[in-house]
Design brief:
Elements lengths: L9 E3 L4 E3 L10 H36 L3 H14 L4 H11 L1 H23 L5 H19 L2 H12 L5 H9 L1 H20 L2 H24 L20 H8 L2 H31 L5 H4 L2 H22 L4 H23 L5 H15 L10 H4 L4 H12 L1 H17 L2 H22 L7
Antiparallel strand pairs: 1-2
Protein backbone atom coordinates (compact mmCIF):
# COMPACT_ATOMS: atom_id res chain seq x y z
CA UNK A 1 0.00 0.00 0.00
CA UNK A 2 1.19 3.54 -0.74
CA UNK A 3 2.21 6.20 1.77
CA UNK A 4 -1.19 7.84 1.50
CA UNK A 5 -3.02 4.97 3.18
CA UNK A 6 -5.38 5.78 6.01
CA UNK A 7 -3.91 6.42 9.45
CA UNK A 8 -3.62 3.31 11.58
CA UNK A 9 -4.09 0.94 8.63
CA UNK A 10 -2.32 -2.40 9.07
CA UNK A 11 -0.11 -3.66 6.27
CA UNK A 12 0.31 -7.42 6.06
CA UNK A 13 3.81 -8.41 5.02
CA UNK A 14 5.12 -11.92 4.54
CA UNK A 15 7.74 -11.32 7.22
CA UNK A 16 5.79 -9.38 9.83
CA UNK A 17 2.79 -7.16 10.47
CA UNK A 18 3.75 -3.50 10.40
CA UNK A 19 1.73 -0.57 11.75
CA UNK A 20 1.57 2.68 9.84
CA UNK A 21 2.09 5.73 12.02
CA UNK A 22 0.34 8.97 11.00
CA UNK A 23 -0.22 7.54 7.53
CA UNK A 24 3.46 6.81 6.93
CA UNK A 25 5.04 3.46 6.22
CA UNK A 26 7.23 2.10 8.97
CA UNK A 27 9.75 1.17 6.27
CA UNK A 28 12.24 3.82 5.20
CA UNK A 29 11.98 5.65 1.90
CA UNK A 30 14.92 5.48 -0.50
CA UNK A 31 16.21 8.82 0.78
CA UNK A 32 15.99 7.68 4.38
CA UNK A 33 17.80 4.45 3.54
CA UNK A 34 20.65 6.49 2.05
CA UNK A 35 20.94 8.84 5.04
CA UNK A 36 20.68 6.17 7.72
CA UNK A 37 22.74 3.73 5.65
CA UNK A 38 25.53 6.29 5.35
CA UNK A 39 25.47 6.98 9.08
CA UNK A 40 25.55 3.29 10.01
CA UNK A 41 28.22 2.62 7.36
CA UNK A 42 30.44 5.24 9.00
CA UNK A 43 29.81 3.84 12.49
CA UNK A 44 30.67 0.36 11.21
CA UNK A 45 33.93 1.65 9.74
CA UNK A 46 34.84 3.30 13.05
CA UNK A 47 33.92 0.13 14.97
CA UNK A 48 36.39 -1.90 12.90
CA UNK A 49 39.00 0.87 12.93
CA UNK A 50 39.07 0.95 16.72
CA UNK A 51 39.40 -2.83 16.75
CA UNK A 52 42.17 -2.77 14.13
CA UNK A 53 44.50 -0.37 15.93
CA UNK A 54 45.99 -3.02 18.20
CA UNK A 55 46.76 -5.60 15.48
CA UNK A 56 48.47 -2.89 13.39
CA UNK A 57 50.44 -1.73 16.45
CA UNK A 58 51.18 -5.23 17.76
CA UNK A 59 54.71 -5.55 16.35
CA UNK A 60 55.86 -2.18 17.72
CA UNK A 61 54.18 -2.73 21.09
CA UNK A 62 55.59 -6.25 21.47
CA UNK A 63 59.08 -4.87 20.87
CA UNK A 64 58.57 -2.06 23.39
CA UNK A 65 57.15 -4.30 26.12
CA UNK A 66 59.11 -7.45 25.24
CA UNK A 67 56.07 -9.63 24.49
CA UNK A 68 56.62 -12.96 22.71
CA UNK A 69 54.05 -14.25 20.19
CA UNK A 70 52.08 -16.19 22.77
CA UNK A 71 51.76 -13.07 24.92
CA UNK A 72 50.91 -10.93 21.90
CA UNK A 73 48.32 -13.55 20.91
CA UNK A 74 46.87 -13.37 24.42
CA UNK A 75 46.34 -9.61 24.18
CA UNK A 76 44.96 -9.81 20.64
CA UNK A 77 42.65 -12.75 21.29
CA UNK A 78 41.24 -11.53 24.62
CA UNK A 79 38.99 -9.15 22.69
CA UNK A 80 37.11 -12.20 21.41
CA UNK A 81 36.63 -13.67 24.87
CA UNK A 82 34.17 -10.86 25.55
CA UNK A 83 32.85 -10.48 22.01
CA UNK A 84 30.46 -13.49 22.05
CA UNK A 85 28.87 -12.69 25.40
CA UNK A 86 26.66 -9.74 24.45
CA UNK A 87 25.63 -10.56 20.87
CA UNK A 88 22.29 -12.21 21.65
CA UNK A 89 21.47 -9.48 24.18
CA UNK A 90 22.21 -6.85 21.53
CA UNK A 91 19.91 -8.54 19.03
CA UNK A 92 17.12 -8.81 21.59
CA UNK A 93 17.45 -5.18 22.67
CA UNK A 94 17.65 -4.01 19.06
CA UNK A 95 14.53 -5.91 18.05
CA UNK A 96 12.68 -4.50 21.05
CA UNK A 97 13.93 -0.91 21.42
CA UNK A 98 15.53 -0.10 18.08
CA UNK A 99 18.99 -0.67 16.68
CA UNK A 100 19.72 3.05 16.58
CA UNK A 101 19.43 3.30 20.36
CA UNK A 102 21.59 0.26 21.02
CA UNK A 103 24.34 0.95 18.48
CA UNK A 104 24.95 4.59 19.42
CA UNK A 105 24.99 3.99 23.18
CA UNK A 106 27.40 1.09 22.70
CA UNK A 107 29.57 3.20 20.38
CA UNK A 108 30.05 5.83 23.05
CA UNK A 109 31.18 3.04 25.37
CA UNK A 110 33.78 1.45 23.08
CA UNK A 111 35.07 4.82 21.88
CA UNK A 112 35.87 5.93 25.45
CA UNK A 113 37.66 2.62 26.08
CA UNK A 114 39.71 3.13 22.91
CA UNK A 115 40.89 6.55 24.07
CA UNK A 116 41.83 5.16 27.48
CA UNK A 117 43.70 2.09 26.21
CA UNK A 118 47.20 3.69 26.18
CA UNK A 119 46.72 4.57 29.84
CA UNK A 120 45.75 0.95 30.56
CA UNK A 121 49.01 -0.26 28.99
CA UNK A 122 51.13 1.72 31.44
CA UNK A 123 48.96 1.05 34.50
CA UNK A 124 51.26 -1.76 35.76
CA UNK A 125 55.04 -2.16 35.70
CA UNK A 126 55.24 -5.95 35.93
CA UNK A 127 54.66 -7.86 32.70
CA UNK A 128 52.32 -10.44 34.26
CA UNK A 129 50.14 -7.78 35.85
CA UNK A 130 50.23 -5.72 32.68
CA UNK A 131 49.14 -8.58 30.43
CA UNK A 132 46.40 -9.68 32.82
CA UNK A 133 45.00 -6.18 33.09
CA UNK A 134 45.14 -5.63 29.32
CA UNK A 135 43.39 -8.96 28.72
CA UNK A 136 40.57 -7.96 31.07
CA UNK A 137 40.24 -4.52 29.44
CA UNK A 138 40.16 -6.07 25.97
CA UNK A 139 37.46 -8.52 27.12
CA UNK A 140 35.31 -5.60 28.26
CA UNK A 141 36.09 -3.76 25.02
CA UNK A 142 34.98 -6.82 23.03
CA UNK A 143 31.73 -7.04 25.00
CA UNK A 144 30.96 -3.40 24.18
CA UNK A 145 31.92 -3.53 20.49
CA UNK A 146 29.87 -6.70 20.02
CA UNK A 147 26.63 -4.74 20.33
CA UNK A 148 27.11 -3.13 16.92
CA UNK A 149 26.59 -5.79 14.25
CA UNK A 150 23.36 -7.39 15.56
CA UNK A 151 21.83 -3.90 15.45
CA UNK A 152 22.47 -3.80 11.68
CA UNK A 153 20.63 -7.08 11.15
CA UNK A 154 17.70 -5.84 13.24
CA UNK A 155 17.53 -2.44 11.53
CA UNK A 156 17.70 -4.05 8.09
CA UNK A 157 14.68 -6.29 8.63
CA UNK A 158 12.68 -3.64 10.49
CA UNK A 159 13.26 -0.63 8.27
CA UNK A 160 14.30 -1.77 4.77
CA UNK A 161 11.95 -3.15 2.13
CA UNK A 162 12.43 -6.87 1.59
CA UNK A 163 13.61 -6.58 -2.02
CA UNK A 164 16.46 -4.25 -1.02
CA UNK A 165 17.57 -5.83 2.26
CA UNK A 166 20.54 -7.86 1.07
CA UNK A 167 22.04 -4.88 -0.77
CA UNK A 168 21.50 -2.55 2.20
CA UNK A 169 22.99 -5.11 4.59
CA UNK A 170 26.10 -5.71 2.49
CA UNK A 171 26.54 -2.02 1.59
CA UNK A 172 26.50 -1.03 5.26
CA UNK A 173 28.70 -4.02 6.06
CA UNK A 174 31.27 -2.73 3.57
CA UNK A 175 32.16 -0.29 6.33
CA UNK A 176 34.27 -3.11 7.76
CA UNK A 177 36.57 -2.90 4.72
CA UNK A 178 36.68 0.90 4.83
CA UNK A 179 37.50 0.82 8.55
CA UNK A 180 40.32 -1.63 7.90
CA UNK A 181 41.62 0.41 4.95
CA UNK A 182 41.58 3.75 6.71
CA UNK A 183 42.94 2.46 10.01
CA UNK A 184 45.53 0.27 8.27
CA UNK A 185 46.91 3.12 6.18
CA UNK A 186 46.56 5.99 8.64
CA UNK A 187 47.69 3.96 11.65
CA UNK A 188 50.75 2.71 9.78
CA UNK A 189 51.70 6.30 8.91
CA UNK A 190 51.01 7.77 12.34
CA UNK A 191 52.71 4.81 14.01
CA UNK A 192 56.02 5.68 12.36
CA UNK A 193 55.71 9.43 12.77
CA UNK A 194 54.10 9.86 16.20
CA UNK A 195 54.08 6.45 17.91
CA UNK A 196 51.32 3.92 18.52
CA UNK A 197 49.31 5.85 21.15
CA UNK A 198 48.07 8.60 18.81
CA UNK A 199 45.93 6.11 16.86
CA UNK A 200 43.88 5.16 19.92
CA UNK A 201 43.25 8.82 20.75
CA UNK A 202 42.27 9.74 17.20
CA UNK A 203 39.87 6.94 16.33
CA UNK A 204 38.36 6.82 19.81
CA UNK A 205 37.54 10.53 19.67
CA UNK A 206 36.11 10.28 16.14
CA UNK A 207 33.89 7.37 17.14
CA UNK A 208 32.49 9.18 20.16
CA UNK A 209 31.80 12.31 18.11
CA UNK A 210 30.03 10.36 15.35
CA UNK A 211 27.79 8.49 17.83
CA UNK A 212 26.79 11.79 19.46
CA UNK A 213 26.03 13.35 16.06
CA UNK A 214 23.81 10.40 15.14
CA UNK A 215 21.83 10.80 18.34
CA UNK A 216 21.50 14.57 18.01
CA UNK A 217 20.81 14.86 14.27
CA UNK A 218 19.09 11.61 13.28
CA UNK A 219 17.43 10.55 16.51
CA UNK A 220 16.75 13.42 18.89
CA UNK A 221 15.52 15.79 16.18
CA UNK A 222 13.57 12.94 14.57
CA UNK A 223 14.10 14.40 11.11
CA UNK A 224 13.62 10.85 9.81
CA UNK A 225 11.71 7.81 10.97
CA UNK A 226 13.22 6.39 14.15
CA UNK A 227 14.50 2.85 13.84
CA UNK A 228 12.15 1.49 16.44
CA UNK A 229 9.26 -0.16 14.64
CA UNK A 230 5.81 -0.33 16.20
CA UNK A 231 4.48 -3.79 15.59
CA UNK A 232 1.24 -5.58 16.08
CA UNK A 233 2.31 -8.26 18.52
CA UNK A 234 1.61 -11.71 17.18
CA UNK A 235 2.60 -15.10 18.45
CA UNK A 236 6.10 -15.93 17.28
CA UNK A 237 7.28 -12.33 16.74
CA UNK A 238 9.07 -12.25 20.08
CA UNK A 239 12.08 -14.56 20.14
CA UNK A 240 10.86 -16.83 22.92
CA UNK A 241 12.36 -20.11 24.09
CA UNK A 242 9.71 -21.92 22.03
CA UNK A 243 10.98 -20.12 18.92
CA UNK A 244 14.59 -20.89 19.81
CA UNK A 245 13.76 -24.58 20.10
CA UNK A 246 12.46 -24.50 16.53
CA UNK A 247 15.74 -22.98 15.35
CA UNK A 248 17.98 -25.24 17.40
CA UNK A 249 16.33 -28.39 16.04
CA UNK A 250 16.72 -27.36 12.39
CA UNK A 251 19.84 -28.51 10.53
CA UNK A 252 19.75 -25.52 8.16
CA UNK A 253 20.09 -23.22 11.17
CA UNK A 254 23.21 -25.07 12.31
CA UNK A 255 24.58 -25.18 8.76
CA UNK A 256 24.39 -21.38 8.70
CA UNK A 257 26.02 -21.15 12.13
CA UNK A 258 28.82 -23.58 11.23
CA UNK A 259 29.58 -21.91 7.88
CA UNK A 260 29.75 -18.51 9.60
CA UNK A 261 31.98 -20.01 12.30
CA UNK A 262 34.45 -21.33 9.71
CA UNK A 263 34.44 -18.13 7.68
CA UNK A 264 35.01 -16.13 10.84
CA UNK A 265 37.99 -18.28 11.77
CA UNK A 266 39.73 -17.17 8.59
CA UNK A 267 38.65 -13.54 8.92
CA UNK A 268 39.76 -13.16 12.54
CA UNK A 269 43.08 -14.86 11.91
CA UNK A 270 43.97 -12.61 8.98
CA UNK A 271 42.61 -9.50 10.68
CA UNK A 272 44.88 -10.04 13.68
CA UNK A 273 47.97 -11.80 12.29
CA UNK A 274 48.32 -10.62 8.69
CA UNK A 275 50.21 -7.42 9.63
CA UNK A 276 52.68 -9.53 11.64
CA UNK A 277 53.06 -12.04 8.78
CA UNK A 278 54.02 -9.37 6.26
CA UNK A 279 56.19 -7.44 8.72
CA UNK A 280 58.22 -10.53 9.63
CA UNK A 281 58.43 -12.16 6.21
CA UNK A 282 58.95 -8.97 4.20
CA UNK A 283 60.48 -6.50 6.68
CA UNK A 284 61.59 -4.00 4.01
CA UNK A 285 58.09 -3.44 2.63
CA UNK A 286 55.77 -0.58 3.56
CA UNK A 287 53.14 -1.33 6.20
CA UNK A 288 50.59 1.06 4.71
CA UNK A 289 50.59 -1.06 1.52
CA UNK A 290 50.00 -4.55 2.91
CA UNK A 291 47.69 -3.22 5.64
CA UNK A 292 45.50 -1.50 3.04
CA UNK A 293 45.56 -3.21 -0.38
CA UNK A 294 43.80 -6.50 0.57
CA UNK A 295 40.94 -4.65 2.27
CA UNK A 296 40.73 -2.13 -0.57
CA UNK A 297 40.42 -4.89 -3.16
CA UNK A 298 37.86 -6.75 -1.07
CA UNK A 299 35.52 -3.81 -0.42
CA UNK A 300 33.79 -3.61 -3.86
CA UNK A 301 32.84 -7.29 -3.82
CA UNK A 302 31.17 -6.90 -0.43
CA UNK A 303 28.78 -4.32 -1.92
CA UNK A 304 28.43 -6.12 -5.27
CA UNK A 305 27.49 -9.36 -3.52
CA UNK A 306 24.33 -7.79 -2.12
CA UNK A 307 23.35 -6.44 -5.53
CA UNK A 308 24.01 -9.82 -7.17
CA UNK A 309 21.96 -11.66 -4.53
CA UNK A 310 18.98 -9.30 -4.85
CA UNK A 311 19.08 -9.51 -8.65
CA UNK A 312 19.25 -13.31 -8.63
CA UNK A 313 16.29 -13.54 -6.27
CA UNK A 314 14.33 -10.95 -8.29
CA UNK A 315 14.86 -13.09 -11.42
CA UNK A 316 13.24 -16.07 -9.72
CA UNK A 317 16.34 -17.93 -8.59
CA UNK A 318 15.67 -19.48 -5.20
CA UNK A 319 17.25 -18.02 -2.10
CA UNK A 320 18.84 -21.40 -1.39
CA UNK A 321 20.61 -21.47 -4.77
CA UNK A 322 21.60 -17.81 -4.46
CA UNK A 323 23.23 -18.25 -1.05
CA UNK A 324 25.03 -21.45 -2.07
CA UNK A 325 26.38 -20.02 -5.35
CA UNK A 326 27.82 -17.00 -3.55
CA UNK A 327 29.19 -19.19 -0.75
CA UNK A 328 30.98 -21.34 -3.33
CA UNK A 329 32.44 -18.35 -5.19
CA UNK A 330 33.65 -17.02 -1.85
CA UNK A 331 34.96 -20.10 -0.05
CA UNK A 332 36.73 -22.24 -2.66
CA UNK A 333 39.15 -19.58 -4.01
CA UNK A 334 39.78 -18.45 -0.44
CA UNK A 335 40.55 -22.02 0.67
CA UNK A 336 42.95 -22.57 -2.23
CA UNK A 337 44.83 -19.36 -1.46
CA UNK A 338 45.26 -20.31 2.19
CA UNK A 339 46.96 -23.60 1.31
CA UNK A 340 49.52 -21.83 -0.86
CA UNK A 341 49.99 -18.67 1.22
CA UNK A 342 52.53 -20.01 3.70
CA UNK A 343 54.82 -21.24 0.91
CA UNK A 344 55.04 -17.96 -1.00
CA UNK A 345 58.37 -16.15 -0.66
CA UNK A 346 57.80 -13.33 -3.14
CA UNK A 347 56.23 -10.18 -1.67
CA UNK A 348 54.32 -9.21 -4.81
CA UNK A 349 52.93 -12.72 -5.20
CA UNK A 350 51.92 -12.89 -1.54
CA UNK A 351 50.18 -9.51 -1.68
CA UNK A 352 48.40 -10.43 -4.92
CA UNK A 353 47.28 -13.81 -3.56
CA UNK A 354 45.90 -12.46 -0.29
CA UNK A 355 44.18 -9.59 -2.13
CA UNK A 356 42.52 -12.10 -4.46
CA UNK A 357 41.37 -14.10 -1.42
CA UNK A 358 39.88 -10.98 0.17
CA UNK A 359 38.12 -10.04 -3.07
CA UNK A 360 36.46 -13.44 -3.38
CA UNK A 361 35.68 -13.56 0.33
CA UNK A 362 33.64 -10.38 -0.09
CA UNK A 363 31.05 -12.32 -2.10
CA UNK A 364 30.32 -14.34 1.03
CA UNK A 365 28.73 -11.29 2.64
CA UNK A 366 25.49 -12.17 0.83
CA UNK A 367 25.83 -15.92 1.44
CA UNK A 368 25.83 -17.62 4.85
CA UNK A 369 26.35 -14.31 6.66
CA UNK A 370 23.05 -12.99 5.25
CA UNK A 371 21.19 -16.28 5.66
CA UNK A 372 19.58 -15.14 8.93
CA UNK A 373 17.31 -12.85 6.88
CA UNK A 374 15.99 -15.93 5.05
CA UNK A 375 15.64 -18.33 7.96
CA UNK A 376 14.35 -15.93 10.60
CA UNK A 377 13.05 -12.64 9.14
CA UNK A 378 11.06 -11.84 12.30
CA UNK A 379 13.98 -12.54 14.61
CA UNK A 380 16.97 -11.35 12.55
CA UNK A 381 18.60 -9.35 15.33
CA UNK A 382 18.50 -12.13 17.93
CA UNK A 383 19.49 -14.86 15.45
CA UNK A 384 22.36 -12.77 14.08
CA UNK A 385 23.49 -12.15 17.64
CA UNK A 386 23.56 -15.89 18.31
CA UNK A 387 25.35 -16.58 15.02
CA UNK A 388 27.94 -13.90 15.65
CA UNK A 389 28.49 -15.13 19.20
CA UNK A 390 29.43 -18.59 17.92
CA UNK A 391 31.43 -17.04 15.09
CA UNK A 392 33.48 -15.05 17.58
CA UNK A 393 34.85 -18.21 19.23
CA UNK A 394 37.60 -18.58 16.57
CA UNK A 395 38.59 -15.05 17.46
CA UNK A 396 40.05 -16.12 20.78
CA UNK A 397 40.80 -19.77 20.03
CA UNK A 398 42.25 -19.36 16.53
CA UNK A 399 44.18 -16.18 17.21
CA UNK A 400 45.61 -17.45 20.50
CA UNK A 401 46.47 -20.95 19.20
CA UNK A 402 48.10 -19.47 16.09
CA UNK A 403 50.44 -17.50 18.34
CA UNK A 404 51.48 -20.73 20.07
CA UNK A 405 51.97 -22.47 16.72
CA UNK A 406 54.30 -19.70 15.62
CA UNK A 407 56.22 -19.87 18.92
CA UNK A 408 56.70 -23.65 18.82
CA UNK A 409 56.93 -24.39 15.08
CA UNK A 410 57.70 -20.99 13.56
CA UNK A 411 55.60 -22.02 10.56
CA UNK A 412 53.15 -19.75 8.81
CA UNK A 413 52.30 -22.58 6.40
CA UNK A 414 50.77 -24.61 9.27
CA UNK A 415 48.71 -21.62 10.38
CA UNK A 416 47.38 -20.94 6.86
CA UNK A 417 46.79 -24.63 6.05
CA UNK A 418 44.63 -25.05 9.17
CA UNK A 419 42.69 -21.97 8.12
CA UNK A 420 42.13 -23.35 4.61
CA UNK A 421 40.93 -26.70 5.95
CA UNK A 422 38.42 -25.06 8.26
CA UNK A 423 37.08 -22.78 5.51
CA UNK A 424 36.58 -25.74 3.17
CA UNK A 425 34.73 -27.71 5.87
CA UNK A 426 32.34 -24.80 6.44
CA UNK A 427 31.58 -24.60 2.73
CA UNK A 428 30.95 -28.35 2.49
CA UNK A 429 28.49 -28.39 5.39
CA UNK A 430 26.58 -25.39 4.03
CA UNK A 431 26.30 -27.04 0.62
CA UNK A 432 24.80 -30.16 2.23
CA UNK A 433 22.37 -28.67 4.73
CA UNK A 434 21.99 -24.95 4.01
CA UNK A 435 18.72 -23.47 2.76
CA UNK A 436 17.14 -20.10 2.06
CA UNK A 437 13.67 -21.15 3.19
CA UNK A 438 12.07 -19.55 6.22
CA UNK A 439 12.13 -21.57 9.45
CA UNK A 440 10.20 -19.26 11.81
Amino acid sequence: MGPGAEEGLLTEEKDCTEVKIHGESSFWSRKEEMVWGGAIFMLTALNIACRNILPVSAVVMSDEFNWDKSQTGLVLSSFYWGYPTTQVLSGYLSDRFGGDQVSTIAAMGWSVQTVLFPYFVYAFDGKTSQLTFLAVMRIIFGMTEAFHFPTIASITTMKVQKERRTFFYTAVGAGTSVGSIVSGSLCSFLLVKYGWKINFYLFGALSFLWAVLMRVILMRKRCLHPCKTIRKRQQGEVTTWKTWKIFLKHRAFWAMIFASFCNSYAWHLLFNWLPTFFTEKFPDEQGWVFNVVPWLVGMPTVVISGYIADRMIAKGISRTTTRKVLQTLSSLPYTTTMFFMGHINCYTTALTAISFAFAMDGLGSAAAYANNQDLAPKHAGAVYGFMNSISAIPGFLGVYISGHIMDYFNSWSIVFSITGSITFTGWFVFMLFGTGEKIA
